[in-house]
Amino acid sequence: MVSRVIPVDTFDLVIFGGTGDLARRKILPGLYRRFQAGQMPEGARIIGAARSEMDAEGYRAMIREAIEEFVPEEKRVNAPLDGFLAQLDYVAIDATGTGGWDRLAEMMRADVVRAFYFSVGPALFGALAERLHDHGIANEQSRIVVEKPFGRDLESAGKLNRTLAQHFDETQIYRIDHYLGKETVQNLMAVRFGNVLFEPLWNSQYVDHIQITVAETVGIGGRGSYYDKSGAMRDMVQNHLMQLLCLIAMEPPSRFEPDSVRDEKLKVIRALDPVRPDDIVRGQYAASGDTGSYRDDADNPDSRTESFIALKVNVSNWRWAGTPFYLRTGKRLKARASEIAVVFKDAPHSIFGEEAGRHRNILSIRLQPNEGMTLGVTIKEPGPGGMRLIDVPLDMTFADALGPEGEDVPDAYERLIMDVIRGNQTLFMRGDEVEAAWAWTDPMIEAWEEDGRRPCSYEPGSTGPEEAQILMHRAGRRWREIKT
Ligand code: NAD
């Protein structure tokens, strides 16, 4: 099987914050991989723009080092780095001042796609948008890409949307949620809407509940001061887990096109019930051995910010009434694993008697590690001795099913940046979607900030606080194991 590389038009891509962590770790290695795949068009240019004074040669040396660090050597053999680096340029710029803007304006070429990646803190988005406009650098065909966090509540997200809207039309704004760029997440849509098998069962009549888990083993590390003002709800649920929930719960869009998909996602967010306080469990990891507690890492002995959250969410519409969505995400957990599990109901009647036990079909969609899907089906245990049933997986791990190319699926950032160049907004969040998501999360956050309740403590390396298990047990359900 030969994967198709769809050509894109040539472009000038300016990366504001081009010397930062995200640019060095994700954006430029991702672009290099597209170059390797032969997708970088002739004459395409990537212009780093950041505060540091350096020339293009200095920038190329910096990015060479980054790619050597973040792209494994065996994945660099087939495309010399020099060819890629030759496409890089650099301009030192002051986002809030005047320095560098005239030079950037001179560098831009007419008649190529112009894209501007705002890989800087959100406090600079307004200043960048204004200067791009005032210096005539952005035209009506230009696109801007903005990173998370998109606001910290409805008010700040609304303000950010209005600021960007002063200079850019919504069709020019690409709000990144890199979860949407993951191969499995898109495959979820292919499985749902490309087969007749699943969609008829995709509702509360056949689905008992859905679990979405994003578990990390790392603590808050060096991000302590940022994270402590945010917490798991703002950092993970409002964006990534909500997006996953939307793709699972949405009605079939009429076409796989930006507004068809985003309209359906928005309807899901608007159908979410407020979550009852009893259906929310917040946790903070404790100290263990040599590793400090959340509060040590945050350097805030009285912190009440959650590093773990579990929620039972109801989607109030005809399709999902009565089928809850359980979401959980946290740091310093047992394993690094992200999964969506669609747990179907029991067969209405067992012809095999009680001794055959209880069996359920579960569709598991793994986002990391080993992206892939598994459908658990029930079969007869081989051999004589009556009808004993066992559950076996129908496995579709991409790496196995698709051969070497399954292992080499593009990283989320690669795909999303190429979508920006192509002008395809399907996998990017629209402004109203982001605001609706904040409108849903804000009251929960305000409620726990007001009552000042401390998050429950949990052991590092565990599955989170005991209370999260109880949330499930109350309904006679259990979380799936967190395993790599
Ligand atoms: P960083 O601190 O490592 O880099 C910031 C970059 O912005 C640097 O290149 C710096 O020179 C530039 N910059 C800062 N102030 C400037 C100014 N006044 N004028 C011009 N340039 C200026 O940050 P980062 O980790 O790369 O994150 C960038 C953005 O991406 C942030 O909004 C962050 O929340 C978001 N983000 C980062 C990650 C990640 O893994 N690092 C993940 C998701 C989202």
From TrEMBL:
PANTHER family according to UniProt: GLUCOSE-6-PHOSPHATE 1-DEHYDROGENASE, GLUCOSE-6-PHOSPHATE 1-DEHYDROGENASE G6PD
Annotated binding of substrate, by residue: 178, 182, 216, 235, 331
Residue positions of the active site: 240
Family: Belongs to the glucose-6-phosphate dehydrogenase family.
Cellular component aspect of the GO annotation: cytosol
Its EC number(s): 1.1.1.49
Binding residues for NADP(+): 17-24, 51, 148
Keyword Oxidoreductase carried by entry: yes
Keyword line: Carbohydrate metabolism, Glucose metabolism, NADP, Oxidoreductase
Taxonomic source organism: Profundibacterium mesophilum KAUST100406-0324
SUPFAM superfamilies assigned to the protein according to its UniProt record, in alphabetical order: Glyceraldehyde-3-phosphate dehydrogenase-like, C-terminal domain, NAD(P)-binding Rossmann-fold domains
Keyword Transcription (UniProt): no
Pathway(s) annotated for this protein in UniProt: Carbohydrate degradation; pentose phosphate pathway; D-ribulose 5-phosphate from D-glucose 6-phosphate (oxidative stage): step 1/3
Protein name: Glucose-6-phosphate 1-dehydrogenase
GO terms of biological process kind: glucose metabolic process; pentose-phosphate shunt, oxidative branch
Domain of life according to the entry: Bacteria
Domain Glucose-6-phosphate dehydrogenase NAD-binding: 14-187
Entries under Pfam families matching the protein: G6PD_C, G6PD_N
Annotated ranges, domain Glucose-6-phosphate dehydrogenase C-terminal: 189-480
Family annotation (InterPro entries): G6P_DH (IPR001282), G6P_DH_AS (IPR019796), G6P_DH_C (IPR022675), G6P_DH_NAD-bd (IPR022674), NAD(P)-bd_dom_sf (IPR036291)
First-tier enzyme category under EC: oxidoreductase
Coiled-coil ranges (or none): none
One GO molecular-function entry: glucose-6-phosphate dehydrogenase activity
Reactions the enzyme catalyzes: D-glucose 6-phosphate + NADP(+) = 6-phospho-D-glucono-1,5-lactone + NADPH + H(+)
Known role: Catalyzes the oxidation of glucose 6-phosphate to 6-phosphogluconolactone.
